Structures are given as C-alpha cells and as structure tokens.
Amino acid sequence: MQRLYRVNRKKAFSQIVQDAETKQCEIEEEIVVKHFKEVYSKSERQSTPPPNVVPKYPEIDEDDKNPLGPAFSTSEVFEILKKCSNSAPGPDSITYAAIKKYDPSGVIITALFNAVKRLKHIPQAWNKSSTILIFKKGDANDIKNWRPIALSNTISKLYSSTIAKRIQSWAIRNKIISPSQKGFMPFEGCLEHSFEIQTIIQHAKRNKNEVIVAWLDLYNAFGNLPHSSLFQSLEMAGLSPETIDEIKLLYANSETTIRLPSGPSESILIESGVKQGCPLSPIIFNIAMEPLIRAIENANSGYEIHGKQHSSKTFADDICTISKNILFAERQMNYATTVANWMGIKFNAKKCSTLHIREKKVIKSQFRIQGEKMEIMDKVTSYNYLGVPTGFKTFSSALETIEQLKKEVKCIDQSLLFPWQKFDAINTFITTKLSFHLKCGHVPKKPLKELDDLIKKVGKKWLNLPTCASTELLYLPYSAGGMNIIPTSILADISTVSHAFRLLTSNDRTTQKLALDSMKEVAEKRLKKEPTMEEISEYYNGVKIPNMPVETHDVTSCWINLRGAMRRLSSKMKIEFEVDNSKKKFNLIINKSAATRFNVEAKLRDATRNHFKQSLISKPIQGRVYNVTAKNPASNHFYRNGNFTRLTEWNFIHRARLDLVPLNGGTKKWFTRDQSCRKCKYKCESLSHVLNCCDPNKPTMTKRHDAVVHRLVDGFKKRQRKSQQILLDQIIPQTSSTLRPDITILDERKKEAIIIDVTIPYENFPKSFVSARDRKYEKYTEIKKELQNLGYNVFLDAFIVGSLGGYDPENYKCLKSLDIPKNYSILMKKLMVGLRNHPGEMKIG
C-alpha cells in the first residue's frame, strides 16, 4: 500500500476507504445490455426548422465558419498532450505516459491527425470504448442508478481534445455560448451560479418582491440527445459542413462494451447522445443546448435586480429559470417545452421543482413542463442545485459529506500507510472535499469542529505526540516543520473571504456587478444609510463604526458571513478591504500585500500557517527548538515525504523538537524528584544533555559528527584541484598549534587555506548556533593569524547542523568556499539533517 501510494495516490486512497458502499454492478448482463441498447438507440426525430421562439444566431464571417479547416500544428498538439494526466487507458491499454515517452514533442501524433484530416477517415478502433458503471445512489438493482463512464483509446481522446480546443475557441470568439451557460466554460460556473440564484432569492425576500425560480432536470440529457438534433444545432450555430462532417466521423459506427463482473458485454451501437468520456462532448453539448437556453432568455421574463434582468442560469444540463410572476414563469415553461419537444429531449418532471416567493411568503403555485406537473417547494424544502441545497431559507450543507469524511479519516488511521503519507492523504483527499461547500453552502461550525478534533487526535497519534503537545505543529507548513493542515473551522472563514473576493473580481461582468451591488445593499441595510465606498470597506473589515444602528435582522447571505469571517481572520493576520476609487472597486490586502483572484486563497492559507508558526515559536519550552528549525526549509525536508527517515526517527523527532521526551529532568510534565541522568548520573537528565553531553552516547555523537564531515569532504572532492591538500582532524604542519580542525584544505601554489570545523549543538533558540560559531572562531583564530603571517589567504568558519536536524543557513559560506556543486549541496543538506545517525540511535532511559 505504501508503494502504491507513492506511485498512484488516488488509487491507493480509493482502496483504503473502500467499503460496503463501493459496489460492483451485479445486475444481470441481459438487463444491462437491453437498457443501454434502448438508451443509445437511434431517435426517430427528423430535422425540422426550429420553433419561432428560438431567436436567430449572430452572423458568422464566412472566413470563420470552418475552424477545423487548417492543418494541426505540432505546438497545438503538444500543448494538449502536455496537459493530459495519466488517466485510465482505453481498450488498447495505451496510456498518455507511453505516448509522451515515445513521442514527447507530438510530431508523430500531429502527422497522424493531419492524415486523418486529409483522408477524412478515422480508424475504427478510435470509435470503440469500454464502459464502466459507477453507482450513484438509491436501489443498486435499478440500472438507472448506475452512471456509465466510457474509457476510450488515448489517441482518440487526444484527437478529440485537439478538435474541442478549436471549437471552444471559435464558440467563445463568436459568442455562440450564452452568458448564462457556464458549464465546461472558463468560469467558476458552479460557484457563480449558486451565488447568483441565492442572491436573487435573498433580494426578493429582503425587498418583499415576487420571484419564481424553477429548476429543470433533463432525463439523461447526455445519453438521450438525438444525433440529428446535435448536428442541426451545430449547423444553426454557424459551423461549416466541412467542420460538421469532421465531427460526424467521431460518431460514425461508435460502439461500446459494458464491463461487468462476468466480463465485457456484447458490443452496443451508440446512435444517440454525446460520447461519454470524449473531450469533444462538453463543448458540442453546450452548443446543442443553445436553442433551449436562447428560447428561455428570449421570453424576456426574468427577475430584475440592481438594473439587470436574470432569466436563466445553466450549468451543462442543469437549468434554472428565474421569472418575475406566474404569467412570465408559464411563458418560460411553454418555451422550454416547445424547444425540448423539437429537440427530441425530455424533462424529468418528478425532479423539476419550482419555488414561488411573494411578500416574503412561499406561494404553492402549480406549473407544468411538457404537460406534466412539477414539484412544488415550500419553506422547509430545498433543491440540491449544483451540490448546494437551495430554497426559501438557508439550509445546512455538507453534513453528510462531513460524516463521510470522518469515516475516511478513520480508514486512513487504520491503514498501513506511512505517517507522512497519512497526512498527505488528509491534505489531498479530505479537506479539499469541503472546499466547494464552504464557499457556496452554509456549513455549521459544530460538525467542522468535530472533524477538526478527530484530525487533531489522529494527527498527534501519527506524530507520536502526547495530548499535551502543541497543536500548532499540525498546522505549520511543511517547510517550517509542520504537516500543512489547516483547521476546517478556519478554512471556512478563508473560503468565505476568498469566494467573496473572487465574485467581486469575476471574469463575468454580470456576476461582478451583482456581487458589488449586493455587497453594498447588505452594508446599506445594516448602516441604515447609503454608505460610501470607505464606509463599506470599514463595515466588512469589522471596524467598530461610531453610532452604528442597533443590529437589525437581515436575510442570511455570504456578505453577512463575510464581516464575521474578516473579523476572525484579522486576529491571525493583517487583512482588510482597501478602496480603489480610480476603478470603483475593492482591493484585498493581506499582510500588506494585495491579493489577486488567482492567489487570494493561497495567500490566506499561507498567512494562517504563518500565524501558527509565530504562535509556536513564541512558546518558551515547546517553541525553543522551532525557533531554529522553522526558519530553514532544509531542516524540515522529511515532513512532506519522509525521505531519508526511518520510522524510529520519525517517532522520536517530533517529541524531541517540542521537548516532550519523558526524561527525569525534562519538561514539568515529566519532572521527578530524582532528576539525575539514568545513564551517567549527571544532575539533570535534559534532552540537550542526552543528545550532546551524556558519556554513554558519545560514540553516537562522534558518528553523527563524522558523518557530516565526510559528506562535506565528498562534496569538495568533486571539484578538488590537484594543488589542494586535504587534512582531516590533523594538526596543521605550518603552524605551532596542536589543535586539529575537522577539515583543513591547503593550496601551496595559490597560498590559500580553508579551515572548517563541524559542530553539532542543541537547538536552544537561535543564539545556540551563534554561540557555537563564535566559539569556533575564538578557538582557531591563532591558527588563522599564523597562516596569514605565512602569506596564506585564510577562510575560517564553522559548519553547524543541530542535534535535532536544524540546519544553519550561514553554512552557505562554507559550501561556497569548498565550491560544492549546487545539486549535490541540496542532497547533502537532506542527508545531513536526515536522522539516520541522529537520535534514533541514542540511548534514552
């Protein structure tokens, strides 16, 4: 398992958390094959002119109607290949890694793709796939509860990706995709649509307006979309017949087999729907949905907020319509019905819901789609739109997710992974799953605290720490000697602030304006006046505003939460919204540095980790060693991946750096009446005594010291000149002193001398390294003077590595004087602070 995690973390994690809910499809092959034959069967729909409710598309220049006309370039294919991750291969078992190995520049692949373009022929193998079934939820014996995922040959997917890139660029350039469609587009679609819908509902409640929100669910939209409808929509969008014919090649004679426990099923012809797992499918599906979206928008029935009308929000096939009264809502449903019937697709009325709000009340109005009744929502029901429960009130989200995460943390704890791999699994697979809910939803603090407490408990166990150990160690960055975790309760505040700032700086001007106007509206409601930009920033910065009205009740929103999040984070960092009057916007300043929408979350995380770092090093006992080790990444290289570290050393080092080793003269927790050393009877058995002074441990200390010396000498020998002589632990014959520096290098021809003495002090605050270096200077000053009198240019310095792995950054002077190669010096530092010859071999107690 440890080896698998190093090679494929995702696969290893899946095996670790695998339990009863991970199912294989046990449905009879006959039933499965029959179902998918029906799903993929050819539709009887015939191409007919679009309904009048579908507006005309913008005119496309003749020169821009054939985006697939020019030959593929090597750079174009190379960029696609470079971004391909090594995902599961298709029926031919060829991986992206194999293609990158044998054709790293993409020259051969480019030639192949251009040959396909010239010949207008695609190899039959490119249109074959193997489909796996992923269980969704519900009854496992119902085939409709299994999601098909098609695995195609990697070369076929590369070809589709290259085409998709051109089609998407063409669609964006010519504004073919409606602004309300954010699925598979370069926007934060889920986050922005979820915010916009919630903001519209909140605005209607706050201002006692009427609004009707309808969530429309298409039955198996990807699998049931008729090919005639798909290709007609491409033609309506303005693509030339040549481009459409090239796309049709990918759908000609497509077939798949279903992977079942009994083996692969018979081949099933795909004559309907977009190809699952094909990189081209998202963009052409978006184009196919355009007639439906444009018809709804054309109804001109949207809800107006801050001077802008909002009619629909679509993410791929998840459609949400917004209207200002019953009449307009019915018009939208009629238009949607007309276009859906023309396209040959069907709404799943049982999963379509409507929410009618008027005067802050929920009205139970009945609406129909394609003649069938839609579900009616009340005050206490919600619709799970894009993973967030949305409705009249604020609903708690991620509760089931958090419970599942707790189970997964326990599975990680019981696994056979190395401790550092367990922490990596927490950072990679656990906390990241909460990110979306923390930004879009409302996650209660109590379950987050329970998850934090569990991670804290197992984290200390993996570090072999007692319960009294400082928890900051878990939250420090790897480079400072921590495990890079951030408590989810703090992560919630980070997500709130970063989400708000990204909305204010969205690439979509409509979303950006809605965010800024909503931000102002909430501040105005609270301050009971029209605030200036400066007053708005002060309010959200958590500043106590003089004569601020007594708090009034307002609708819960992300802006209400923003003020609280800013106040809590301000205790951990310097953070504030700053007014940019020239551009009428807000800048977010974090520790005196302006954040951008791309780095805001990373900056907040780094500032939080830095807060925990400062908190730990300020502690007089447990922060003593960290005052030294936390300041140099070389001292902590093993925290991320355990390189050059044995488990015995791992179990010791964290206790030791926090000074929590149970010794007679250790910290107060371990004090005994007799504080003398159990080995040498020294009056105080402290950690510094055991590691650096105890006589029975002298052989290990010498071995540790000599290992550092030999590493330095090995590095020097790579660049040693013939005229240079190396003296190790020897008296320098040119001087009268009997002292024996660890390393002396003499160059008689150039009259140069290098004197380096290695020392391994205990990391008792930074002054311990300074004192150790000063002692070495004082010890060898006379030798330096003698050699200088003989005409030598002398370099004298100490090389310091702490007994707990602290690496002195001042050592660079020694490395420079020895002319040690940079690559070797990086490895050498890791080997020196690596604990192989360190405390794991010490005799304690």
From TrEMBL:
Segments for region (Disordered): 42-65
Pfam families referenced in this protein's UniProt entry, alphabetically: RVT_1
Domain Reverse transcriptase: from-to ranges: 115-390
Signal peptide location: none
Source domain of life: Eukaryota
SUPFAM superfamilies the record matches: DNA/RNA polymerases (SSF56672)
Protein name from the UniProt record: Reverse transcriptase domain-containing protein
UniProt source species: Panagrolaimus davidi
Phylogenetic classification of the source organism: Eukaryota, Metazoa, Ecdysozoa, Nematoda, Chromadorea
